[in-house]
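Exercise: predict the fold of this chain.
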Amino acid sequence: MTYLQLVQSVLRRLREDDTIQSVSENSYSRLIGEFVNDSKRIVEDSWDWSALRTTFTIDTTTDIFRYQLEGSDISLKILDIINDTSNYFLKPVTSSWMNNAFLNNPPAKGSPAYYSWNGFNDNGEAILDLYPIPDDNYFIRVNTIDKKETLVEDSAILHVPSNPVIHYAVALASRERGETGGTSSAELFAIADQTLGDMIAFDVARHPEETVWRPI
């Protein structure tokens, strides 16, 4: 659904005029737009949705160990990182481990086998340090959960399931104005929680291996 369609759907459930042509049409539609974005973040944060799974790629350059993931968001979550040239997974290490490797010992050069976060740039894009320092061109695949930016344009598309986003927005809006036409805010949040749980269950079925613990 688009941002505008989401806001219109919430307005209908609140018994408000849903014939707006833009989210920015009036002060109330803008408020509902804020609740839709709040709800979007709640839903995005609740599970590693299939629709948010994105692979960033890095082509290393000789003697360069620091790389930014262009187009990533500050809420990025890494699932795994693969050295596709050398055919193995990179292992995450702490900043202290990386500092020791670079500062307390002569840093090694070769095919990257370890990685560590190094914050974000001014655009909110994630920065990764690789070790050993690349001695050639290696193709690195960074598999992530990349949560989407705040919805702004009317035509912006929601990537996570729309039903829980709508129900949470209705609950937030109803709580804000103090009346719900017969349904309490607590009931509305319970409906939203149930809807979210159902949508997570459907998506979990696509990745059953990620919810089953097996001893090593």
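Check your answer against the key: The chain has five helices and ten strands.
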